[in-house]
Amino acid sequence: MASTALYIARVYILLEWAASCCIKPH
After folding, report:
1. How far apart are CA 14 and CA 26, in angstroms?
2. CA-based diameter of the chain, in Å?
3. Distance (Å, rounded) from C-alpha 21 to C-alpha 12?
């Protein structure tokens, strides 16, 4: 359970980072 939650959180953070960096570059 805990490892799965951490994995999902990590993937979500990576997706958010990719979206903020690639879709809207600063």
Report:
1. 17
2. 37
3. 14
Give mean pLDDT, residues 5-23: 90
Give the mean pLDDT of 1-26: 86
Q: Enter the pTM of the model.
A: 0.54
Match 């997706």 to its residue by tokens: 15
Choose among 18, 19, 15, 23: nearest CA to 7. Answer: 15
Please report, in angstroms and rounded to a whole number, the separation of the first and last CA atoms in the chain.
37
